[in-house]
Automatic annotation (TrEMBL):
Residues 1-57 form the DUF1918 domain. It comes from Streptomyces caelestis. This is DUF1918 domain-containing protein. Residues 43-65 are annotated as: Disordered. The lineage of its organism: Bacteria, Bacillati, Actinomycetota, Actinomycetes, Kitasatosporales.
Length: 65
């Protein structure tokens, strides 16, 4: 999994009724776009994430507006 600043990190809900958690990658801490990432979520919370299998990266260059 590789990302750049400005990409979106989407953590999919694990149980029925749980919403996806979407955040913007504000800093890439690993080499060559690898995790961990500093992420700012929609609610303003910011944290360091090492994404698991329930996570996807939406690259800013390929997102449709």
């Amino acid at each position: 999994m590789r990302a750049t600043e400005g990409d979106q990190l989407v953590q999919h809900g694990r149980v029925v009724g749980q919403h996806d958690k979407v955040g913007e990658i504000v800093e890439v801490l690993g080499p060559k776009g690898d995790p961990p990432y500093r992420v700012r979520f929609e609610d303003g919370h910011e944290g360091v994430c090492s994404p698991g299998p329930d996570t996807e990266i939406r690259h800013k260059a390929t997102r449709q507006h």
